[in-house]
Fold:
Amino acid sequence: MTTETKKYTEFTNPNLEILFTAEQIKERVAQLGKQITKDYADKDLVLVGVLKGSCVFLSDLMREIDLKLSIDFMAVSSYKDAQVSSGDVEILKDLTHPIRGKDVIVVEDIVDTGLTLSHLLELLKTRGANSLKVATLLDKPEPRVVKNLKIDYCGFQIPNKFVVGYGLDAANRYRNLPFIAVLKEAQSAE
Ligand code: IMP
Ligand code: MG
Structure:
């Protein structure tokens, strides 16, 4: 328990069990940023964040990439506040700039069944990018439905538990936590 995490009232919630501290996340995100900096040295990089969950990861990751780059966002619906995947993926917000000829990394918070990401990749493949890769902070391989999904940059693999914090939510709550925690029991949003 660090003093940094104590100031969050959510921390007193006995339903939260810390999986990765803010320090552990920072260290891992810095490693990913270094790797991407190496891999994309002579490329025209665009980071495409998948809203809303990837917003925290994307904003930390891009500051660890020492290259000229641009960012854009897409929003897709998947879970709709439920804690099981519906398999329904709908584009709610599209890119604002074309990605033709660009080197794109789709930035996700977590890959679970893989349905969201595979639908998104299918769509983005039709847009003429020079390359298309995936970075996710978390990979939860156990419930994967789309088996051949390639994740190029992964922060951490996690067990089949529902996690919140650092952008990840349960019914839109907990995104602001600086750490990642397992939500032990489903709760209604207050
Ligand atoms: P998938 O389509 O099942 O891979 O789910 C991807 C999306 O579901 C993620 O981008 C998250 O928004 C959400 N999701 C999956 N697992 C979790 C979790 O453990 N906590 C919070 N959101 C999750
Ligand atoms: Mg998401």
About this structure: The chain is about 20% helix and 30% strand. The longest helix spans residues 22-39. The chain has one domain: 25-159.
